[in-house]
Amino acid sequence: MSFLTIGHRGMMGVEPENTLRSFVRAEQEGLDVIELDLHLSKDGALVVMHDADVDRTTDGAGPIAERTLAELRELDAGRGERIPVFEEVVTAVKAPLQAEIKDVAAAQALAEVLRSRDLVDRVDVISFHDEALAAIRTLLPGVRTALVGSRYGADVVDRALAVGATMLSLNIRRLTLELVERAHAAQLKVVAWTVNTHDQLRLARGLGLDGVVTDLPEIRRAVRFTA
């Protein structure tokens, strides 16, 4: 498999994160995969946003779960962009996607969309929450999943295997060669986040990773020089 470059929330280093503008930019820049985050609105829509509230990335305030989709649509998500729903992203770009479940309750809604739109082969489901990955695998047995880890320990490989994941997406600041080798021995792919410098990219290559998550288009362009 070639070395993957994964656009973090689209191309958030140069565009408003988790917006259609950001996802289109990531595809234009040639990123192999586009990562996004999912929460449920008050009325059950699969809203694309990282945080549980709208304060940081919009001109509004308060929890996503307390607003309907129509109310969320009124907010400016950066440069005039509106908060998208997952179905719009699927239509706006053709690249493979990593859909991160931030809210365990979103697993059911995501499974329904992936099934109804025949997206199982195009979308990997990722999450920090073991139970969310277990739930989506039960709902969609054929779906590919990845366990995400920030302050993870040596047990992260066993945790991934326990929920049927095929990939680990890990904070590069804690990553060791020993852990990468253990994961690969267990047939797990390993990608690291967030890789935004040439030094971090060289480290990722040295660790033998399968790919990186990045905010910046120049990291995609630099990959060919670090093989």
From TrEMBL:
Transmembrane segments: none annotated. InterPro entries: GP_PDE_dom, PLC-like_Pdiesterase_TIM-brl. One of its GO terms (molecular function) is phosphoric diester hydrolase activity. Pfam families: GDPD. GO terms for biological process: lipid metabolic process. Residues 3-224 form the GP-PDE domain. SUPFAM superfamilies: PLC-like phosphodiesterases. The lineage of its organism: Bacteria, Bacillati, Actinomycetota, Actinomycetes, Kitasatosporales. This is Putative glycerophosphoryl diester phosphodiesterase.
